[in-house]
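User: Batch of two.

Assistant: Item 1 of 2:
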Amino acid sequence: MLQIDKKNCFVQLGTFLSQFSFDNSTKKEAVLHNDLFYDEFLTLIELSQSHNGWFTPEQVFFAVNSWAEALKEENLNQWLSHYDFSNVQPKTIGLILAGNIPLVGFHDFLSVLISGHKVVVKTSSNDQKLLPFLAKYLISVDDRMADFIHFTEGKLENFDAVIATGSNNTARYFEYYFKEKPSIIRKNRNSVAVLNGKESHQDLVRLGEDIFRYFGLGCRNVSKLFVPKDYDFQPFFQAIYEYKDVIFYEKYSNNYDYNKAVFLMSNFKLLDNEFLTLKEDSSYASPISSVFYEYYDTIEDIIAQLQNDADQIQCIVSTGLIPNSIPFGQTQKPQLWDYADNVDTLAFLISI
């Protein structure tokens, strides 16, 4: 099966996904196999929260929309044009996926298949339904895809290389267990925003998207702010008030109440707007419903610190204060060539 055939399957999948929206899903008769898949997928999205309490329909629709955009043919062509696949020797690649946000492992799944390999997937218990459904759709577009896709519920076996995502603790297990195999092992990372107090109201509203999308559960969610010593947090709180309804979601609210109580019992000084707490802290990983902040003296100081701590950071957002930073509001809309942990997955898959 040629790469162009696989690419066409993913383009068709993107077209299928483009029909679904939180505000207005619209069935299009021209989309392949809609009679078999449209209603079933809509039901799956609506029931996702029963499989994982964090996977509200709004969050799943957002993930689906993001992949619909990414799988446009022009995006796939731009991504693939930078690689030479002519010497790829097909192998079986094991994937151990995370389940913190909907379809978080789809990029690895896509990368393995589009590079010419077979994939054996062990899904997270927190996200067991969405990816197998999309795989079923791919196979319906071209039944030869069935030879390249396998899901397993048990021990991962019979693979030549592995891409595994987990916590820092599970990563140590992965590194030991897969030490004889070519591998990409992903650990905990967090994203940060660097502010200077000159951001517009709309910039800070967009920053709220980077903080609250997926309830802050993703490694691309901003969990820490770097601010100058005279920073006024009032404009920040005014801007993120648009996200106040997050507190009406029970799981988020429970985390807010619990983490706030823990902080207060420890006599930590907090800034609080009744749905988000800000705590001065040197760590990058803040709990759900809280964002840490740290003061800096000069931009040069913070650039040096972020370079030194690069292995802990997934994304940096700013208004251009930091080289190669991401604009506000874009952390959860990565391009196909925006690789997790800055590890080029396709280059790895071509090289093995």
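Item 2 of 2:
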Amino acid sequence: MAIMAKKIQPAKAEAIKAAKETLSAYSDYIFADYRGLTVEQITALRGKLREKEAAFKVIKNTFARVAFEELNIENVADYLTGPTAIAMVKEDTNEAAKILYDFAKEAPALQVKGGYIGSEVYDAAKVEAFSKVPGKKQLIAMLMSAINGPAQKIAATLQAYVDKKSAEGAN
């Protein structure tokens, strides 16, 4: 629980409001320690996440704690210690997690701490396991190919029958 002063300075209140607005635009959050990453590495990571409609932002921990409390997102304060960046995701969170873990292989300084995914708090191991699950679009593609396979076989069989009959009729 964040400690709130009786009288908050206007600049801090504005920063908390901005953090709340930023966080409220996303549904899932992955917390990572970014200490040791270069500006170029962080920029590259942000670019990869942007392709999946995700963002990677550093928000001061105390402002983030208050903003999460105001958004009724609890039990994430443990991840808001030390240098923390937040990967914020609208959908396909597992793909964003996969990007983070793949990037951590190239830049071991990036350490995933945990996440808040689907109204549930995940530790680092659970986020890593979640990153290995196929994404929503991949699952839909797999389902469609499973449904489409038998239909293609039926169509090919019928076409072969039509071709055979037309060849017999031509003779």
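The chain has a mean pLDDT of 87.
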